[in-house]
């Protein structure tokens, strides 16, 4: 790398010992300008593993896959810059340039590329008369071919302007590494696809912005989605990376708020050899979950799908993270396994005017100088161009391909490069370029003395300081293609996702159909909209069931299983007198005293009512007192008749009919007075007895005053005892002749 103390190219002249050490990767897109925007994109990915010998310098790494999709992102950046340069209403006095390199989706390669961008890369050299001289640029704004190269290049060889801002990278982990490395230089980084919520931490990454929503919004959308379909038992897997770790952590928290549990959580390594694949598939097959959320990129999906096909695992409802939710390149090989997949894709641009034409104008005659474009041509059409500058091989040795005839046309075959039907990440790249352009425009419009810096100074685009540019970027709002672009204080855009469904058409092709959306700017109850009728499911005509325990119907309650997630439970019938009228009730509710559960314990019904009506015989205290008083009067008369020794004795005159009636009336009046006092102080009342029978209410008479009640009964008992005593005395006398004398008959 260049050992520079200052990012300005002019400073190189001051350093006599400045040197570029090592072999420089010359493949890139470059076009000079007043301000050069750097870009890093994962054009190649999945490094071919090899064991180092440690006895010689390692050879440059090779990679399994070439991403035509990433090449479209690169070309979108060049298209946006050239479009801005042609406008008269945006940066009319400033020309933008670009310097775009391949990150290979790896930290070491990305670091090397980024340092080349911010330092100013050496231009190509040629040997003339045995000496080294600076090579010439092609002037076409594309890759410049490599001539002979000196093993050590000095500062005088720097011919490409340093980049004051970098657009990239796609990976969250790579972006974090770039930010930590470039942080001391205060180089702004604008990512178009890095979504890790950890990047929103401004204290750790103060020079970061992105046109890609944070995962904090994606996981909320995913949690709402699985809850919407009743999938409470889901598998969660992801690549061993910062992106997946933070996303899974957020998802587990957010999903728990919606009653969703993780059947398992598993992180697999970047290099998916057979052992970690077997471990992952054992977990999938050993679980009852039918829904799996996968946080990874499309390259990891390819490896997992191949292993799943070998094991013949079917019936899985895949939920895609936004990194592969619209990766159409997976369909050709794995369409049978991925049909019915759901995932949230970032917001799509219906069209970027002019981009399709920009991508479709490639011909063999105008791509020979670009190794990137040559590789696209040869990979897509499976032929080798004459004098090809492509040095990469993927699965097939590029030297073994048949020669191209010159009649081939990229428009005759499908390629992710020219597919503009799903402009999502490309749209993010487009917005990132315009973000920088609008920030530069604001800087250009700044009037001296009214600027945001010390003493009201303004930044100057011609002598741009990266940290000044970032200040304007943080406070920039603009509209593009009818969309208002705004950022929060963390540099994150407002999240909006399309819910995508992978549908198989009749001809077997893939159709990515929008079946809903999630808008974080709306209230929680309105943020998710799903058109269920438009969804094509992996199996059958309806969503799969993925629960640990089936729902408890009304009449039963949930009983948690000890040591298991809350989604795993048993259903217990409500106890007597209790009901539950909701599904998955945590507790049963006791019925009111006047009600009783039905047989299903779903609802409370009124109890039957039983009572004594006025038509039925009832006994009252005064009636008893009257009857016993009559008996007592007669018994006294009989007793006195036995006691009289002489016939015609005057004693009996006191026990005549009138006296008997008077004694009966007196005894009855006493009982009446007792009852009157009882009724005036605390009278009896009706009471509903709900405890005697379970489903019946017995309406009974409550005594009211216990004292009054016992006084009434006690008085009756007193009269009865007196009556019994008098009868006993009368029986002891037995003079039968007296009976006859007085006309008694027994």
What does this structure look like?
This protein is α/β, with parallel strands linked by helices. 32% of the residues lie in helices and 20% in strands. The chain is built from 17 helices and 31 strands. An eight-stranded mixed β-sheet has the order 14-13-15-16-17-20-21-22, sandwiched between helices. A six-stranded mixed β-sheet has the order 2-6-3-10-11-12, with helices on both faces. A three-stranded mixed β-sheet has the order 29-31-30, with no helix packed on it. Strand 18 (478-480) and strand 19 (483-485) form a beta hairpin. Helix 1 (68-86) runs parallel beside helix 11 (425-445). The protein starts with 18 loop residues before the first strand and ends with a helix.
**First-to-last CA distance:** 140 Å
Which structural class fits the helix and strand makeup?
alpha/beta
Estimate the global geometry from the Cα principal axes: elongated
Put simply, the count of helices is 17
The parts where pLDDT drops under 50 for at least 5 residues are 1-16, 124-151
Q: Strand portion, in percent?
A: 15-25%
Radius of gyration, in angstroms, nearest whole number = 48 Å
* Strand arrangement in the largest pleated sheet: 14-13-15-16-17-20-21-22
Count all strands and give the number.
Answer: 31
What is the helix fraction of residues, given as a range? 25-40%
Largest sheet: 8 strands, mixed
What is the overall pLDDT average? 84
């Amino acid at each position: 790398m260049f050992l520079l103390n200052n990012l300005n190219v002019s400073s190189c002249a001051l350093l006599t010992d400045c040197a570029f050490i090592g072999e420089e990767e010359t493949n890139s897109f470059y076009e000079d300008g007043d301000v050069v925007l750097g870009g890093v994109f994962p054009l190649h990915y999945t490094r071919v593993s090899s064991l180092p010998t440690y006895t010689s310098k390692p050879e440059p790494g090779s990679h399994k896959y070439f991403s035509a999709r990433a090449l479209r992102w690169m070309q979108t950046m060049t298209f946006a810059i050239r479009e801005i340069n042609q406008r008269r209403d945006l940066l009319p006095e400033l020309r933008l340039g670009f310097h775009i390199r391949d990150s290979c989706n790896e930290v070491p390669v990305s670091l090397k590329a980024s340092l080349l961008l911010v330092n100013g890369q050496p231009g190509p050299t040629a040997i003339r008369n045995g000496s080294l001289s600076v090579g010439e640029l092609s002037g076409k704004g594309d890759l410049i071919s490599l001539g002979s190269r000196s093993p050590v290049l000095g500062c005088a060889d720097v011919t490409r302007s340093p980049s004051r801002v970098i657009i990239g990278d796609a990976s969250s982990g790579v972006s974090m590494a770039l930010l930590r490395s470039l942080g001391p230089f205060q180089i702004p980084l604008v990512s178009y696809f890095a979504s890790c919520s950890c990047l929103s931490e401004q204290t750790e990454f103060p020079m970061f912005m992105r046109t890609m929503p944070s995962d904090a919004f994606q996981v909320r959308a995913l949690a709402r989605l699985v809850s919407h379909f009743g999938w409470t038992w889901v598998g969660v897997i992801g690549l061993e990376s910062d992106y997946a770790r933070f996303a899974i952590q957020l998802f587990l928290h957010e999903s728990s708020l919606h009653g969703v549990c993780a059947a398992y959580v598993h992180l697999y390594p970047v290099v998916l050899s057979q052992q970690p694949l077997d471990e992952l598939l054992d977990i999938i097959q050993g679980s009852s979950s039918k829904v799996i959320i996968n946080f990874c990129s499309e390259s990891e999906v390819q490896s997992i799908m191949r292993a799943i096909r070998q094991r013949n695992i079917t019936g899985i409802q895949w939920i895609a993270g936004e990194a592969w939710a619209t990766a159409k390149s997976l369909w050709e090989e794995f369409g049978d396994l991925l049909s019915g997949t759901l995932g949230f894709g970032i917001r799509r641009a219906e069209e970027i005017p002019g981009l399709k034409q920009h991508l479709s104008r490639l011909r063999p005659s105008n791509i020979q100088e670009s190794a990137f474009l040559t590789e696209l041509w040869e990979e897509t059409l499976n032929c080798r161009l004459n004098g090809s500058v492509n040095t990469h091989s993927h699965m097939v040795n590029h030297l073994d391909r048949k020669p191209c005839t010159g009649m081939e046309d990229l428009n005759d075959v499908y390629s992710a490069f020219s597919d503009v039907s799903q402009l999502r990440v490309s749209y993010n790249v487009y917005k990132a370029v315009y973000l920088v352009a609008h920030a530069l425009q604001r800087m250009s419009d700044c009037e001296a003395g009214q600027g945001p810096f010390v003493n009201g100074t303004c930044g100057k685009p011609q002598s741009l300081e990266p940290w000044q540019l970032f200040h304007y970027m943080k406070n920039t709002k603009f509209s593009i293609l009818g969309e208002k672009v705004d950022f929060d204080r963390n540099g994150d855009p407002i999240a909006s996702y399309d819910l995508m469904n992978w549908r198989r058409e009749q001809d077997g092709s893939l159709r990515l159909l929008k079946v809903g959306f999630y808008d974080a700017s709306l209230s929680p109850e309105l943020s998710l909209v799903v058109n269920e009728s438009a969804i094509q499911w992996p199996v059958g005509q309806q969503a799969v069931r993925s629960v640990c325990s089936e729902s408890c119907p009304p009449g039963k309650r949930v009983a948690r299983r000890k040591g298991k997630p809350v989604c795993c439970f048993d259903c217990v019938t409500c106890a007597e007198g209790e009901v539950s009228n909701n599904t998955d009730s945590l507790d049963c509710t006791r019925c009111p005293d006047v009600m009783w559960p039905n047989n299903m314990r779903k609802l409370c019904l009124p109890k039957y009512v039983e009572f004594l009506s006025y038509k039925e015989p009832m006994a009252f205290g005064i009636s008893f007192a009257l009857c016993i008083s009559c008996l007592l009067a007669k018994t006294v008369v009989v007793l006195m008749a036995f006691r009289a020794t002489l016939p015609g004795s005057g004693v009996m005159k006191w026990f005549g009919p009138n006296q008997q009636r008077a004694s009966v009336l007196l005894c009855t009046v006493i009982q009446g007075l007792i009852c009157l006092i009882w009724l005036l102080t605390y009278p009896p009342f009706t009471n509903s007895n709900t405890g005697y029978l379970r489903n019946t209410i017995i309406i009974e008479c409550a005594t009211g005053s216990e004292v009054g009640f016992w006084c009434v009964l006690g008085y009756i008992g007193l009269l009865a005892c007196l009556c019994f005593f008098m009868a006993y005395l009368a029986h002891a006398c037995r003079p039968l002749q007296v009976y006859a004398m007085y006309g008694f008959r027994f």
